[in-house]
Amino acid sequence: MEIVVPPALTESHVKWEGEAGRAWSAGLPALARRYLEEWGLRLDGASMHGVVSLVLPVVRADGTPAALKLQPVTHENATEPVGLRAWAGDGSVLLLEHDPATGTMLLERLDESRSLSAVPDDMKAMEILAELLARLVARPAPEGLRRLGDIAGQMVEDVPAALAKLPREEDRAWLRRCAAAVAELVPEPGDRLLHWDLHYDNVLAAEREPWLAIDPKPLAGDPGFDLLPALDNRWGEVVASGDVRGSVLRRFDLLVEALELDPARAAGWTLGRVLQNSLWSVEDGEDRLDDVQLAIAEAMVHRQ
């Protein structure tokens, strides 16, 4: 069976890494064949991909279905195996093999065609996500992960430069407000193992459990910092409700209750995520804050 690299994956690597990205993408078939041989795997279906990774459905020598994930090692994904080993399948996909030199992983096979985005009832999907997230953040972070205290401190330091690039006073005021919330929380950044990117499309159906989390960006910190990716899922439904603030707060309250968090502290760290996303947006050349992020920030004020 031929190993196909989807053109969209190559385009993504070229976008971010230029010709180096094109060269890495071109080398994927050879890299995949190496691990098919070394780990005793055979291909079992068509290639899949994310923004940076090529995922190949495979079967192990004992007949167990698995997924071969190939991606360049970056600061974002370098600690993915650390988090997966710590969770050991408790709420997350299982890590079966890993080569630190290339970042290649062999993972438990999940159903890539069924994510929480496909669950018709939005609040039911949120309940499932909340239950998984509560299990994930219950575990103390292992050594070797990025730490929220360091990241949050740097965010606060980056605010003055970002303010200078925002012409609207409304945007500047919100950036200051988010930064103030983060500055208050930085002295106690937490020590739990965070997923950092748990939204509906990063929860897939499985056989071992009904649903499991995938694609973490492990971080050591306060669980309140892990809520925002779930809040802006299926935003069209939030808008269609006619009560954006109420819809956001219903999601937020469900998450806070499931994780047994202090609402005010969780709201502050959610403002921290708004700050992080906004700083990234300004760094990418935007001169105004995203309306969805602002709507979430406005809702959080009612829980601080």
Shape: globular
Which stretches are low in confidence, meaning pLDDT under 50 for 5 or more residues running? none
Ends apart, CA distance between termini: 56 Å
- pLDDT average, as an integer? 95
Number of strands: 12
Strand content: 5-15%
- Helix tally equals 12
Report Rg.
20 Å
Largest sheet: 6 strands, antiparallel
Description of the structure:
Strand 2 and strand 3 (54-59) form a beta hairpin. The protein is of the alpha+beta class and 304 residues long. Strands 1, 2, 3, 4, 5 and 6 form a six-stranded antiparallel sheet that branches. It has a three-stranded antiparallel sheet with strand order 7-10-11, covered by helices on one side. The model has no long low-confidence stretch (mean pLDDT 95). The protein is globular and about 55 Å long. The chain has helices at residues 7-17, 19-26, 28-38, 80-87, 122-137, 148-163, 169-185, 228-231, 235-240, 244-259, 263-283, 291-300; strands at 42-43, 48-49, 54-59, 65-70, 95-99, 104-108, 111-115, 146-147, 192-194, 203-205, 211-213, 219-221. The protein starts with 6 loop residues before the first helix and ends with a helix.
Task: Briefly characterize the structure.
The chain is of the alpha+beta class and 304 residues long. Helices cover 47% and strands 15% of the residues. Strands 1, 2, 3, 4, 5 and 6 form a 6-stranded antiparallel sheet that branches. Strands 7-10-11 form a 3-stranded antiparallel sheet, with helices on one face.
